[in-house]
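Subject: Protein entry, chain in single-letter code together with its fold tokens

Category: Structural biology, sequence-to-fold work with a learned token vocabulary.

Notation: Tokens come from a learned vocabulary of local backbone shapes, not from coordinates.

Start of record: The labelled sequence and token lines come straight after this line.
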Amino acid sequence: MAGNLLEQPALFDACRGIRLLALDVDGVLTDGRLYFGAEGEALKAFNTLDGHGIKMLQKSGVAVAIITGRRSDFLARRAQDLGIRLLIQGREDKFDALQELLTEYPCALEAIAFMGDDYPDLSVMARVGLAFAPPNACSPVLARAHWCSLRRGGEGAVREACDLIMQAQGTFESALAGYLP
């Protein structure tokens, strides 16, 4: 699943048609652990590599959405910081949530990539154009993924997915050029 994009022509072709990357949160954008503060507040850590990859992908013309079963104010803030306006929280049925999201951002299912790591993500992964997973995903998710990142969830897995899509679409080099002398 992981490896050189050019060695996987079907994956390369599918990535070229992606217009929306939808993401789970726990285990994908985070390492899946929850920390609780003295006041009972839940805390999560997000990786800046993922955040910058998301910004670059959006700038290249691919929209990014978040669909999660949990609800939190800090996730809404993180999404806002990253310019993600397609956010659905507190929904266990992620395919229904995706359908709702598509009323706001119409997109064919074949043009959607989804990255998930656990059983609730399977309903979306089985229906979209590309299913992505981090290597720490549960076995049934890994078995259904078209591509698996090398990095674990919360450790840059989403960045790899963003780079993969941009490489296939021919936008990666121009996105990277802004950082080179």
Notes: Residues 5-176 form a domain with the Rossmann fold fold (CATH 3.40.50.1000). The first helix runs from residue 9 to 16. The chain is about 40% helix and 15% strand.
